[in-house]
Specification:
single chain, alpha/beta, 11 helices, 8-stranded mixed sheet, disordered C terminus
């Protein structure tokens, strides 16, 4: 990427981390938009941004920034994406690329493209990375190192646009780049990302004792509950938008728990060993294929 190319909409963890990572490998000029003034001021002081405007307060400047940009990245919650497009649709010029980095796709990618003027391209992407903390102050240029980067192209995406996005993913350090249809993305993510977050929250909530349980935890408990400390507003939206797919994965998980509980009740050591061995062998097979579940810590 060259100079004067990007507007970042949303200076939270993901948007800030993406800018910081790109600035380490490119000569990138970035304008930022956010509903809060404070992260914009900090980003300007840190030279993460070169220009900024507050959404809802500095609308003339916001519109000027968007009108002059040909690459706009939306680091927004799912609820805000279509609303943003509708509000500023008159600012998007021909040959502009609008890219989101949201963890959900089927609910809005194709609809966003349908609403946009002819010649404006929408690309859904999902960097599989994250932290337990949110906000500008937790932005990390190394967040995407080794992470998977998912692109969900539509029929309107040009090959050169997808090539640009892949180059960007490589520039920030992503380890694997995959392309998949938006709805298929959501089906798989329900298992690989959303279900583990629900499992972690449920595990934390299941303890009803009075003991100092933290003193009795080890690595397995820390690993299993790490993602229980999350941005609850964001993940509530992700879960609800993808409720059909997530429910299906929860039902399959409940079935496996029921099988194990029956084996435990019957003290069936042989079948319990088979249950655990089958899981272990699948995990080893997936690791052998190079699939890393920590995928950038997200």
């Amino acid at each position: 990427m060259n100079k004067n190319e990007m507007v970042m909409v949303g200076l939270g963890l993901m948007g800030t981390s993406l800018i910081k990572a790109l600035k380490e490998t490119t000569n990138l000029w970035v304008a930022g938009l956010d509903i809060k003034r404070e992260p914009l001021q900090r980003a300007l002081a840190d030279q993460v941004l070169q220009e900024s405007a507050v959404l809802g307060e500095e609308e003339e400047k916001v519109r000027a920034i968007l009108t002059n940009s040909r690459f706009i990245v939306l680091a927004l919650y799912p609820d805000g994406i279509l609303d943003f497009i509708d509000m500023y649709i008159d600012c998007f010029q021909k040959d502009t690329i609008i890219m989101d980095i949201c963890g959900l796709k089927g609910a809005f990618v194709e609809e966003a493209q349908r609403r946009l003027p002819e010649g404006v391209e929408y690309v859904g992407t999902h960097p599989m990375a994250g932290k337990e903390k949110s906000g500008y102050e937790n932005g990390d240029s190394e967040l995407f190192l080794g992470a998977s980067f998912i692109i969900t192209p539509t029929a309107q995406n040009r090959p050169e646009t997808l090539h640009l996005i892949r180059r960007m993913a490589v520039a920030v350090g992503c380890g694997r780049i995959r392309e998949i249809a938006p709805k298929e993305h959501d089906r798989i993510i329900a298992y690989t990302s959303q279900l583990p977050h629900v499992m972690a929250a449920a595990l934390i909530r299941s303890w009803d004792g009075d003991e100092d349980v933290v003193s009795y935890t080890g690595g397995s408990f820390r690993d299993a509950t790490r993602v229980a400390e999350i941005n609850t507003k964001l993940w509530t939206q992700l879960f609800c938008y993808n409720r059909k797919e997530l429910r299906a994965e929860l039902e399959k998980y409940q079935k496996q728990l029921s099988i194990f509980m029956e084996l435990l009740e019957q003290k069936d050591e042989e079948q319990m060993d088979h249950f655990l061995k089958a899981a272990s062998e699948r995990k080893i097979a997936w690791k052998t294929k190079g699939d890393r579940y920590d995928g950038g810590r997200g």
